[in-house]
Design a protein that fits this description.
Blueprint: E1 14-20, H1 26-36, E2 41-47, H2 52-61, H3 73-82, E3 89-93, H4 99-107, E4 112-115, H5 123-135, E5 140-142, H6 150-160, E6 167-175, H7 189-194, H8 197-200, H9 205-221, E7 225-233, E8 244-251, E9 256-262, E10 271-278, E11 281-286, E12 292-297, E13 303-306, H10 314-317, H11 330-349, H12 363-381
Parallel strand pairs: 1-2, 1-3, 3-4, 4-5, 6-9
Antiparallel strand pairs: 6-10, 7-8, 8-9, 10-11, 11-12, 12-13
């Protein structure tokens, strides 16, 4: 994929820029670790904060050329697109309301986008961004990082191979407790923007972690949502977005599902859990114990499949780094999304078709996630009425 005025060699690390993720930002640091874990990206430019001084200070901490640390994302997109050694891809790690305008600036210039989830703050923005992405020659990658875990890939492969039979029931939950008090009132940065509908979108816990749960359920099962009924709550007084949600789901083909997301559940840190039941077998996976997958054929004892162990197949093996018994988790799962993105970008560099085994969430999954949040909010406002997602 040659971009006019810029040089994209046949080899070497992918030149990466970043928008957001400056000093004190958790997710920006995670993306930088993930990008460099396999040595396939090099961070060379950034607009790390809406505050120019903070952006420059962040760039200095990261050892970047100060001429390539920008005061804003629009200036960065223009300047980097003109450079022969300009960035080939940009990581977007801003609050949700900035995902769409930032992504559009870079996609229109043929620069690949790696964007944190959810895709956008509103469904209208998501559909507009999807239209821009469809016209661009650049790739769009959405970092639903849990799809990068080896045993999630194993579960997906087993469902696709028919080892569970036709799927009947899907149970998924994502519970945390960090917002059980009005943390946003203390000025805590992450809590402040995640509970502000102008920056997070109309969904609070639903958009923040509910989208992860929904994406995981669909990724593993291959099911497509037909309708949902959602009951959302803001338990903390004065909170303007939901901090807890219960969602019933009907999937095309007849399967049924339940999703619970909560950020006010004491005793839960990052409790993402998936259970899938078919006619002939069931699967269970928990993010806090990610190297193990439980498989239970009907009428038989439970079987434990371990990452890299007996029964673990090629889908898991291709995203496994270390031997069994050495834990792999959050950072490695995130890095697997970056590694898959790198493989696709390298194929585009060389003008060849991507490896069909390369798997990462993209614009379609992002649009489905935002439509899920939109449907949850609409349903809850109507007393948990059944509604169809506006994909």
């Amino acid at each position: 994929m040659a971009i006019e005025g810029r040089s994209e060699g046949a080899g070497g690390r992918i030149r990466l820029g970043m928008v957001g993720g400056g000093q004190g930002a958790f997710i920006g640091a995670v993306h930088r670790i993930a990008a460099r874990l396999d040595g396939r990206f090099e961070l060379v430019a950034g607009a790390f904060s809406a505050d120019p001084e903070r952006s420059r200070a962040s760039g200095a901490e990261l050892g970047l050329d100060p001429r390539r640390v920008y005061d804003g994302f629009a200036a960065m997109a223009r300047a980097e697109a003109r450079r022969k050694d300009g960035i080939e891809a940009v990581a977007i790690v801003t609050p949700n309301h900035l995902h769409a305008p930032v992504a559009v600036e870079f996609l229109r210039r043929g620069i690949h986008v790696i964007c944190d989830k959810p895709l956008t703050a509103t469904l209208r923005e998501a559909k507009a961004l999807a239209a821009v992405a469809a016209r661009s020659k650049a790739l769009f990658v959405l970092t639903h990082n849990y799809t990068g875990y080896p045993m999630v890939r194993q579960a997906r492969a087993m469902v696709a191979a028919g080892e569970l039979g036709p799927i009947r029931v899907v149970q998924v939950e994502y519970a945390q407790d960090w917002l059980a008090t009005p943390l946003e009132a203390t000025g805590q940065k992450q809590a402040a923007w995640r509970t502000d509908p102008a920056r997070s979108g109309a969904g609070g816990a639903t958009g923040d972690i509910g989208t992860h749960a929904y994406n995981l359920a669909c990724f593993v099962t291959g099911l497509r949502l037909e309708a949902l009924a959602a009951d959302l709550q803001a338990f903390v007084p004065g909170r303007r977005v939901d901090d807890n949600g219960h969602v019933l789901m009907r999937f095309e083909g007849g399967a049924r599902g339940m999703l619970w997301c909560s950020q006010v559940a004491p005793g839960n840190e990052n409790a993402l859990r998936l259970r899938v039941y078919g006619e002939t077998a069931g699967l269970e996976w928990a993010q806090e114990d990610p190297n193990y997958l439980w498989f239970t054929p009907l009428g038989a004892p439970k079987r434990l499949i371990t990452r890299g162990g007996a029964g673990s197949g090629p889908a898991a093996a291709r995203v496994t780094r270390v031997p069994p018994g050495h834990p792999e988790g959050y950072l490695e799962g995130f890095a697997n999304i970056y590694a898959e993105a790198a493989r696709a970008i390298e194929a585009a560099r060389e003008g060849r078709a991507p490896d069909p085994a390369v798997t990462f969430p993209g614009i379609a999954e992002g649009l489905q996630g935002v439509a899920f949040v939109d449907a949850c909010v609409r349903s809850s406002r109507r007393g948990a009425a059944w509604v169809r997602p506006a994909f």
